[in-house]
Amino acid sequence: MAYAVDIKGSEYYDIAVKDLATGEILPDRLPNTQGDFVWANDSATLFYTVLDEKHRPSKVFRHCLGSDVSNDVLIYEEADPGFFVGLSKTESRRFLLISAHDHTTSEVQVIPADAPETPPRIIAPREQDVEYDLSDAGDRFLIRTNADGAVDFKIVESPVDATGRSEWRDVVPHREGCLQLELHLFANQMVRLEREGGLPRIVVTHLTGGDSHDIAFDESAYDLDVIPGYLYDTTQLRFGYSSMAWSSRKTATSDQ
Questions:
Q1: What span, in angstroms and rounded, lies between the C-alpha atoms of 125 and 122?
Q2: How far apart are the first and last CA of the chain?
């Protein structure tokens, strides 16, 4: 288990690693990080972000357990001082994601989680005022983006091995006034949170058949949020619901 600790209140975190079988704290200690890290699938390789002198996460390093921190490999460094770097993993845990973004522009690079020494590959080079984020679904990526003038965002797909903008194909076309807020992938379903007419709804779409159903409510004002959890191959979706009348956490079950 890896964990990040800040004991000074400086928001500079040291990442430490504990052997869960023995309870031993390993000698590996990664200093001055943002506290943002992901494991590769070998359970022996950690990727983590480092802060610069202005407290901006700007670099990604790769650390192999048992090796000296001074030998950690610089995987990515963001040259634009207006961009911040983040790390995450797709829901399937197949890909590590390195994201670089400001408030209006984003760029994502991927590394296969089973092959952590693979150099990162850009999904689509950054373009001013174009944002995108992605998940993987088998042999394709599903991407939420505002590209091509989609001011309320849309969902597109591309082959995993050919991800340039010319390869993007609409899955959920842009519809003005219907804002695509979030995209979540499960083994057999695509879940998106969208808002139209001031009210949110959750749309669940079966990845194979394309059948969809909505989760929405009859109240005139309410809020929804998706709680994706950590299970990928599941037919249960947890979400939060709140209104002026009441609030709850619910579980929706799909038999698809």
A1: 6
A2: 34
Mean pLDDT split into 10-residue runs, the chain, 256 residues: 92 95 95 94 96 92 96 96 96 97 97 97 96 95 98 97 94 97 96 96 93 90 90 93 79 62
CA of 165: how far to CAs of 89, 141, 158, in Å? 22, 12, 9
Locate 70 and state its tokens.
């001074």
Would residue 239 count as lying in a domain? no
Amino acid at 133: D
Helix (H) or strand (E) holding 17: strand 13-18
Domain count, the chain: 1
Strands 121-122 and 132-137: unpaired
Residue 247 lies in a domain: no
Q: Which residues contact 149 (CB under 8 A, 6 or more apart)?
A: 174
The one-letter amino acid at 176: E
Distances (CA, A) of 201 to 68, 140, 196, 198, 237: 49, 25, 8, 10, 13
Q: Is residue 132 part of a domain?
A: no
Give the neighbor-by-neighbor strand order of the sheet with 95-101: 84-89, 95-101, 106-112, 121-122
Written as six digits, the tokens of 183 are 């995209």
CATH code where residue 53 lies: 2.130.10.120
The whole-model pTM stands at: 0.91
Secondary structure class of 80 (helix, strand, coil) = coil
